[in-house]
Amino acid sequence: MARAGRIYLGLVLVFLYAPIAVMAVMSLNDSQFYALPIKWSLRWYADLAGNQRLIDAGVNSIVVAVITTVIASVLGTAAALAFFRYKFRGKRLLQVLLFPPIAIPWLITGTAMLLFFFWTGIGRGLHAMVLGHVALALPYVIIVVSARLQAFDPDLEAAARSLGAGPWQVVRYVTLPFLAPGVIAAALFAFAVSFDQFVISYFLAVPGVSTLPVEIYTSIRKGFTPEINAISTIVIVASMALLVGVSRFYRFGGDR
Amino acid sequence: MKHHLIAAGAALAIFALGAGTGTADTIRVLNWQGYGTDESWALEAFEEKTGHKVEHEYFNSEQEMLTKLRTNPGAYDVVLINSAFTPTAAKEGLIQPIDTAKIPNVADLTPEMRNNPNLVIGGKTYGVAWVWGATSFAINTEKFDAAPDTIEVLWSEAMADRIGWRDDAVEAVQITAIALGQDINNPSDLDAIREKLRALKPQIRTFWTSENDWNQFMSAGEFDAAIYWSGSASRSATNFGLPVEFVVPKEGAIGWLDGLSVPTDAPNVDAAYEFINWMIDPEFYVKWDTDVGAPASANAKAMAGLPDDAFNRAVLGNPEVASRLKFMGPIEDDMREKMLELWQETKTYFQN
Amino acid sequence: MAASNTALGGAVRTGSSARAIAVLTGPAYLWLTVTVLLPLLAMFYFSFLTEAPIAGRVGELTLEQYRTFLERGFYTTLILRSLKLGATVAFFCFLIGFPCAYILAKTIKGRWREALFLLVIIPFWSNALVRVFSWTMVLRGNGLLERAIDWVVPGAGSLGLMFTYSAVVIGLVHSYLPYMILTCYISLQAIDDDLIEAARSLGAGRITILRRLILPLALPGIVAGAVLIFVPVIGSFMEPRILGGRQGTFIGTIIEDQFTAVFNWPLGAALSFILLACVLVIFAMFAPVLKRAM
User: Is B225 in the same domain as B181?
Assistant: First the structure.
């Protein structure tokens, strides 16, 4: 039975990774039209180095994702703390109001932002994308941090206080260190949400300024070169390395 | 003392040289992908001559081009507009009148094209006639013994699930209008067109939206015949080596004339003029058609530079073929909306 | 003493706590108001105009856009088609992902579990677009899948998968599967093994344990996953365009068209709100299930 389970898991992983493997292999194929059989070549990686457009898009993606992560983590953690610490009228309502960004299809949120930002002169571009991405990431951050807070033992804080610690010291030396893994997980989530976000970025891009997913979509729709495969392979290898690195400090699988 | 004079003279000379070339700008061009303005050898030659760099943005339909102009004022310097759409763009204030005195090669353009009433409005030139060609269908020569001569082949049973079609409302309706013998710019019987389009359900395997799509699908064997443009078919055969042939059937084909325009609020108007001048230059055109594959040029001198058996001279230049072309013209707003709705409805009908 | 020092979930304090709440939650909600609420209100306003009041145009108030929706049956067809797609994708993600999460949470222990969990999460970071495009290489006529099958069973013929509704479903399931695995995993992991042991020792069979113990306890995760998948999928246009071919028309692609090509923003706005209304109606219908899951 356990054997069957492992085989099933293996099959699912094959399903998940098949396109990624195809993408990596095709990035090493010389043909422009993905013709088989494969002729091995590093040509697309070399071309990528000269493709300023793609590189700019990649850099923009990272910049937007980093800024989004910082803002969303700070705002989200603060809100999660408030929900956890205090009971107040309207708390339920506020919690429900977190759902719209998740409950509304990105298409609708994205086109609404396009419409509103263009009409009011806020404009589109990287700053608009940050506005949009943070809005999308906030609910996730709050949910993840709240989940971590649920496991917090209130006696720890009581103990600290009885030893004479002031409220800020309690927060700094007891609460926040406990929160840290939760905040890191939430930050990673926010980063992923922003870096891979396509729909919102698509509607908020302007000529000359776009992010990697938007640039890739434009290439697929208008004129594709396999350099796209090259940069995507690089991204996934980099994120694998990042995740493995972070997992040394945070047990993703849970504490058991 | 003499040293100072020489030094000053040298400095002045260097200064003059620098001033002579002017400031180097980066211009942004809005066009179809792979449609001449982004040929790398052409851009390199342009940068060498003028020092200006060129960046591109692309669109997949005339509708998208207009929306990009409307929502990004001041972002583009040169835009390619199908002459049938130039009056709309001019009326909306999206493009500005062009000072043709600053574009020397305009003098060599074929007069009927240079003064096309869609490009010259109220005595002002809003678009410089660039290239013209036909929209019809192209076939995979390896799948046909002889090139078909009728557009009905797209509807034939032998071609079930082997046809490629372009996801564009106006083009879809106009091709069907040709098959039914109606006026492409003002079809008289939209219901008949609706029925004829629906008959395509078993025929169409997939839609294509860019030349790149078309080439990929053709080389993967997804379709044997597909709606296409004459210049693009030429490019598929010449530049990409695909077994492609363009067909102008007896019922006729859609004719179009593309022009290069300058958007209102373009940041680099003079550099834009220099670029347009280069694009209509025979030196650029002959190399473009011979090495890569292109539509026919509006510049008579450029056409004369082509070899006699080139497609653009032998086929499109043939008066009999040219007479079968039905040229696109401006379409009334409510007719366009009807076409859009008809196509959306048809696409929904195509779903299983 | 106890009531006031364990502030966590404890007594209500006025004054300073109200300010603290405002300071802590204010920024986040202000952000959401400006970036989500106001744009949606603006779009709602636009849906009642004849033309988008930008680029020098003037719009007048009208019900024309909504009337167009009611008069043209094909819009309703498309909305239903998109809702069906959302449900189908969520269902298959559950079918494939739930057993996967269960195996990961319950039968695998130690370092393997963490490594496998990471492996499941990593596709999140690969670019969704390239994954979808890679599927075209796998699914197309004479693509990798057909070649592989041909190699195993020569002369098997064409699968005809590319440019079909199925291809779109496959691409979407592949993109959104990690969400379901993740949410189910979190729920399943919280189920105490002792509970299952106790049930087994009382004589319950596997199916009974699954039906009456595990599924109900894992319901929050399943529901969360379903919501996280259903909502984006009904508005998707990227996967249908790339994988769907002639079969790739959904309400998402039509709405996207309105904004980027056709330039009929009011119609796009109206269609968006009608779609949103459908989503809310569905949530309302499933409210009892959702409430239990919270």
Answer: yes
Q: How many distinct structural domains can be found in chain B?
A: 2
CATH fourth-level superfamily of C68-293: MetI-like (1.10.3720.10)
Same domain, B210 and B152: yes
> pLDDT grade, residue C15 (50/70/90)?
low
Distance CA A193, CA A187 (A): 10
Chain C hits for A85, CB-CB cut-off 8 Å, are 7-9, 20
pLDDT of residue B200: 94
What residue ranges do the domains of chain C occupy? 68-293
Q: What is the DSSP letter of A40?
A: B
Whether residue B176 is found in the same domain as residue B295? no
- Mean pLDDT (chain B) is 90
Q: Report CA Rg, chain C.
A: 24
Distance, C-alpha B57 to centroid of its chain: 14
Give the domain extent around A25. 1-41
What pLDDT, in 10s, does the model give residues A15-65?
Answer: 999 888 888 888 888 877 666 677 888 888 888 888 888 889 999 999 999
Residues B33 and B117 in one domain: yes
Mutate which of C5, C49, C129 to disrupt the A interface (most A C-beta within 10 Å)?
A: C129
Strands B128-140 and B296-297: antiparallel
Using alpha carbons only, give the angle A217, A220, A225 rounded to the nearest 5 degrees. Answer: 120
Examine the domain organization and report whether A109 and A236 are in the same domain: yes
Together in a domain, A116 and A165: yes
Q: Are residues B344 and B205 in the same domain?
A: yes
Q: Tell me, what CATH number does A62's domain have?
A: 1.10.3720.10
Beta-strand ranges (E) seen in chain B are 26-31, 53-58, 78-82, 95-96, 120-121, 124-125, 128-140, 163-166, 204-208, 225-229, 244-247, 253-263, 296-297, 325-327
Burial-class residue A70 by CB neighbours within 10 Å (0-12, 13-18, 19+): middle
Q: What is the mean pLDDT of chain A?
A: 84
Question: Are A25 and A116 within one domain?
Answer: no
Q: What pLDDT is recorded for position B53? A: 94
Contact C28 A138 (CB under 8 A): yes
pLDDT band at C177 (very low <50, low <70, confident <90, very high): very high
User: Does A36 share its domain with A87?
Assistant: no
- Asked whether the beta carbons of residue B216 and residue A33 sit closer than 8 angstroms, the reply is yes
Of A33, A207, A222, the CB nearest to B215: A33
Does the interface predicted TM-score (ipTM) exceed 0.90?
no
- Residue A8 in any domain: the answer is yes
Domain coverage including residue B238: 133-254+327-349
Q: Are residues A10 and A116 in the same domain?
A: no
**Which tens digits make up the pLDDT trace of B28-37?**
999 998 899 9
Length of chain C (residues):
294
Mind listing the pLDDT tens digit of every residue in chain A (256 residues)? 678 888 998 899 999 998 888 888 888 888 776 666 778 888 888 888 888 888 899 999 999 999 999 999 999 999 988 888 787 777 888 888 887 788 899 999 999 999 999 999 888 999 999 999 999 999 889 888 887 887 777 788 788 888 888 777 777 888 788 888 788 888 988 988 898 899 999 999 999 899 998 988 888 887 767 788 888 888 888 878 877 777 766 655 444 3
* C48 reaches A (C-beta below 8 A): no
CATH number assigned to the domain comprising residue B38: 3.40.190.10
| pTM for the structure as a whole | 0.85
Within-domain flag for B299: yes
Counted across chains A and C, CB pairs separated by less than 8 A come out at: 269
**Which residue in C143, C247, C259 is closest to B352 by CB distance?**
C247
Contact A131 C34 (CB under 8 A): yes
Evaluate whether A57 touches A207 at the Cβ level (below 8 Å): no
Task: Give the closest of B28, B57, B212 to A224, CB-based.
Answer: B212
One-letter amino acid of B5: L
